[in-house]
UniProtKB/TrEMBL annotation:
Principal location: cytoplasm
Subunit: Monomer. Binds directly to the core enzyme of the DNA-dependent RNA polymerase and to nascent RNA.
InterPro entries from the UniProt entry: DNA_repair_Rad51/TF_NusA_a-hlx, KH_dom-like_a/b, KH_NusA_2nd, KH_sf_prok-type, NA-bd_OB-fold, NusA_N_sf, S1_domain, TF_NusA
PROSITE patterns: S1 (PS50126)
Membrane-spanning segments: none
Role noted for this protein: Participates in both transcription termination and antitermination.
Protein name per UniProt: Transcription termination/antitermination protein NusA
Length: 414
């Protein structure tokens, strides 16, 4: 294989991988200089000129002519007067000899190795380009096409044919995709595993919801409205705290849109995830009240030292504060950064009810705390639930729930 064929074939391959010309020339020169070092031990006195467009390669070995008896005659950049005269009869001592080295002089095996090295260098460069491309897009939304659905992940292809991965853990539980579907997700992270970039996408990250708001709400994209914090139970519920520094802009109204037009697009993308948009405030009690919406809070006690908040509500508001599956209170706690305990307000008709603290001798204190976290602070509020409801709300063992019911029923039987 001569130099022209080698360079042209490499240039075509490089162009097919969208490698720019300067990079292509640099790789070619690096590989040829490696060949020179292997044959001559150094490339310091060699000049390599490449024209990738024409397939031209010129390698010149440059040496200074010295007297045959000179002490420097064995230096890599010196040549004896006698040897120089064999190249050109009219050379004189002190002049430089430019000796052209043909590619064939390196041997057929070296040339084949150079060809393989060039291809590998481009493949490695392609991996680096892919890694850098997506590393710069971490946290940004992209669209990709599903091409294979596996048990633990979905493989997607971007517009350039690169493979992307959407793990099961980063999918919304209600997501159902088929081959050929277009999927929106954020670039969650980019890993380099055994020299190969692995692009991980996510649809469950709070950042995904934030980017969807930026796409649907111009005021968020322009920075007129700031998203302070987002907490999510993907596919179920999310709470988004927003604020605006412009009093003329209602941040909640702008995010929801006329008749919910803006937020509906976000909800649809998230498989009907219930999204609460609330006004952020530094007033903690007001912030908690807003975070527990749609429940109406009667009063709040804040324990700064323990980072806990006790919230008191009317009996008919407790279930609203807790929410389906306990998501509302869990998300509210994460949003405000405090553990929230919900309590029912007792009225004059609740005289026959008994506070759970009265059973501390029979029921472990940690179990009572678990019940209170879900707004169950009296015996009747617990007995109003079924065994299945209580188990689901508290995640207590069935045997423990049975014992709780036995103790509380016994109280009223007496």
């Amino acid at each position: 294989m001569d130099a022209k064929i080698l360079i042209e074939s490499f240039a075509d391959f490089a162009r097919s991988k969208n490698v720019d010309r300067p990079t292509m020339i640099r790789i070619l020169e690096d590989v040829f200089r490696a060949m020179i070092r292997k044959k001559f031990e150094t490339d310091e006195n060699f000049d390599v000129t490449i024209n990738a467009d024409q397939g031209d390669l010129e390698i010149f070995r440059i040496r200074e002519i010295v007297d045959d008896n000179s002490e420097d005659i064995w230096d890599f950049d010196k040549i004896s007067f006698t040897e120089a005269r064999k190249i050109e009869p009219d050379f004189e001592i002190g002049e430089e000899v430019y000796e052209k080295i043909e590619l064939e002089e390196f041997g057929r095996r070296a040339v084949q190795m150079a060809r393989q090295t060039l291809i590998q260098r481009i493949k490695d460069l392609e991996k680096d380009i892919l890694y850098n491309k997506y590393e710069e897009q971490v946290g940004e939304i992209i669209s990709a096409e599903v091409y294979q659905i596996l048990g633990r992940e979905i493989l997607l292809i971007d517009g350039d044919g690169n493979e992307l991965i959407l793990p099961k853990a980063e999918q919304i539980s209600k997501d159902r995709f088929r081959k050929g579907d277009s999927v929106k997700a954020i670039v969650h992270r980019v890993d380099m595993i055994n020299g190969n970039p692995k692009i991980i996408l996510s649809r469950t990250s709070p950042v995904f919801l934030e980017r969807l708001f930026e796409n649907e709400v111009p005021e968020v994209y322009d920075g007129l409205i700031t998203i302070v914090k987002i907490v999510r139970e993907p596919g179920e519920r999310a709470k988004v705290a927003v604020e605006s520094y412009d009093d003329r802009i209602d941040p909640v109204g702008a995010c929801v849109g006329m008749k919910g037009s803006r937020i509906h697009a976000v909800v649809r993308e998230l498989q009907n995830e219930n999204i609460d948009v609330i006004n952020y405030t530094e007033n903690l009690e007001l912030y908690v009240t807003r975070a527990l919406s749609p429940a109406k809070v009667s009063s709040i006690n804040v324990d700064e030292e323990r980072k806990r908040i006790s919230v008191f509500l009317k009996p008919d508001q407790v279930s609203l504060a807790i929410g389906k599956g306990g998501f509302n209170i869990k998300l509210a706690s994460r949003l405000v950064g405090y553990e929230i305990d919900v309590f029912r307000e007792l009225n004059e008709y609740d005289d026959e009810d008994v506070d759970l603290n009265e059973f501390v001798d029979e029921i472990d204190a940690w179990i009572i705390d678990e019940l209170k976290k879900t707004g169950l602070d009296t015996a009747k509020s617990v007995l109003a639930l079924t065994k299945e409801d209580l188990t689901r709300r508290t995640e207590l063992e069935e045997e423990t729930v049975d014992e709780i019911f036995r103790i509380l029923r016994q109280e009223f039987e007496q």
